[in-house]
Amino acid sequence: MSRDPRLVEPQRVGPDGQGGPSGPPDPLRLCTFATVALLGWLLGPVAVVVFAAVGFAGYWQARRAGLLRSRCKLGDTRLVLVYLAALAAAGVVGIVLGWWVW
């Protein structure tokens, strides 16, 4: 039985400069956080509404599929849904107040 050529192990560099499983971790989450922060800064409350709505839709679908606990700090998916709905509502208020003030 041969190995599937589409399954490729990522190359890693160990502390000794040689490849190995003890290579440095990829800080992809930090890049993701920076990108989300940039979009939030540029788009303001619109970004909050969009990200909260996408997150709410994802958690809603996951909850309906049976997910009861999340890796989110809030834990219970019901709390996460309430949190995301509150963020979306705050974003809408920010948009309305921003338009009203202008």
| Beginning-to-end CA distance, first to last residue | 68 Å
Largest sheet: none
Strand content: under 5%
- C-alpha geometry: extended
Helix/strand-derived class? mainly alpha
**If you average the pLDDT, what whole number results?**
81
DSSP strand count: 0
Q: What's the helix-strand series?
A: HHH
Unreliable parts: none
Helix content: 55-70%
Number of helices: 3
CA radius of gyration: 20 Å
What does this 3D model show about the protein?
By secondary structure, this protein is mainly α. It has a domain at 39-101. The protein is 60% helix and 0% strand. It is built from three helices and no strands. Helix 1 (28-43) packs across helix 2 (45-64) and helix 2 runs antiparallel to helix 3. The radius of gyration is 20 Å and the shape is extended. The N and C termini lie far apart (68 Å). 7% of the residues are buried. The model has no long low-confidence stretch (mean pLDDT 81).
